[in-house]
Amino acid sequence: MSKHEQLDCRHPLGIYNVSILRILKKLSKVCEKIEALFRSVNSASEMIGSNSLQEEVIDYLELSIYSAAEHIDDVESIIRCFFGVYERYDKIPAVRRFKEEIKPIRTRLSGFANAIKHRQSRIRLLHCDFEHGGHRICLHGFFIEEFKDGACSPSPIFHSGNQKVISVTSFAWSVLIYIYSISNSLCSLLNALNIVETYMVEYNKNDLLAKCVVGLVRLPLYSFDDIHPFHATRVIMRFQSSKLIDSGLYGSLSRRWSKSSKGGFNRIIHGYEGDGVTRKFNLNPPNALSLEHWD
C-alpha cells in the first residue's frame, strides 16, 4: 500500500503520469522541430550563423534531456512512496537490481543535464551534406560543448575516443526507449516487492505516446558515432494509414535508404557560438555514419 500521504506527496500513479506527460510533450516537440529543420535546409551552408529553427531544436533537445533525467528522480520518488518515512530500502535486493538496471541511462542523461546546468556546457548542432543513392540530404547531429585548455571543444567527458557526434534522430529514439526501459524495470521491481496489484488496461491509440512514435518514424534513421538504440532493442509498429507516417524525407520509414554502398560527405558545419572573448574552437567532425534500415 502506498504511503504517499505520510510523505506529503502525490499518489505514485500521479507522479508517474505527470512525469511521463512532461517527457512526451518535449519529445513530440523536438520531433516536430527536427522534421522542420530537415525540410527547411538543403545544404549545410545554409546553417552558417544562428537561426530561430536551429535554436528551437537545441532548446527542445535540452528540455528533453532535463525531463528524461528528472523522470529517473521521479521514478525513485515512486519507490519511496511504498516505504515509511524512516524505512531503509536501498539494500533490498530488488531495489538494488532496479538501480543497477537503470544506471547506464541515469549516467548518460544526468551527465548531460549536469554539464549544461553546472559547467556552462552547451548543446551545439553539427550539419553535414551527404550524397547517397542519388539523393542529397543535410544530416544533423549534436555534441556537448565544454571550455577546456583555452578552447571551446566537444566535451572530453562525453566525446572521448571515437564518440564525437550524436545523431539528433538517434538520440530522440533513445529517449523514447529509455522511457520503456525504466518503466519495465519499475514494473519488475514493484512486482518483486508484491506491493501493487497487476491488471491490464485498455491502450488508447490516440494518445501522446502514439504521436511521438509517428513523429520519430517520419525522421531519417541514422547514427553518427553513437550506437543507434535499434541495435539493442527491437521495435514493432503498426499503422492504419501510410499517409500519417510519410514525411517525404529520404531515410525515413516511408522513404527508406537505398541499399547502395556509394555515398559521401561534402561540407560540414559546426554550430559553435562566440562568447565575445574565446578565439579558439576545436573542430571535431564525425568519425562514422551508419544508415539504419527498417528491415
Architecture overview:
The chain has 295 residues and is α+β, with helices and mostly antiparallel strands. The chain has one domain (12-291). Helices cover 42% and strands 15% of the residues. The chain has six helices and seven strands. It has helices at residues 12-40, 52-80, 93-118, 168-193, 208-217, 242-245, and strands spanning 122-132, 135-148, 151-154, 166-167, 222-223, 263-270, 290-291. Strands 1, 2, 3, 4 and 6 form a five-stranded antiparallel sheet that branches. A hairpin with a 2-residue loop joins strand 1 and strand 2 (135-148). Helix 1 (12-40) runs parallel beside helix 5 (208-217). It is globular and about 60 Å long. The termini are far apart. 34% of the residues are buried.
Which descriptors would you attach to this protein?
42% helix, 295 residues, 5-stranded antiparallel beta sheet, globular, single chain, alpha+beta, two-stranded antiparallel sheet, 15% strand, 7 strands
Number of strands: 7
Mean pLDDT: 87
Distance between the termini: 45 Å
| Amount of beta strand | 5-15%
Order of helices and strands: HHHEEEEHHEHEE
**How much helical structure, as a percent, in the residues?**
40-55%
Secondary-structure-derived class: alpha+beta
Largest sheet: 5 strands, antiparallel
Unreliable residue runs: none
Number of domains: 1
Number of helices: 6
Q: Choose one word for the global shape.
A: globular
If you compute it from the alpha carbons, what radius of gyration comes out, rounded to the nearest whole angstrom? 21 Å
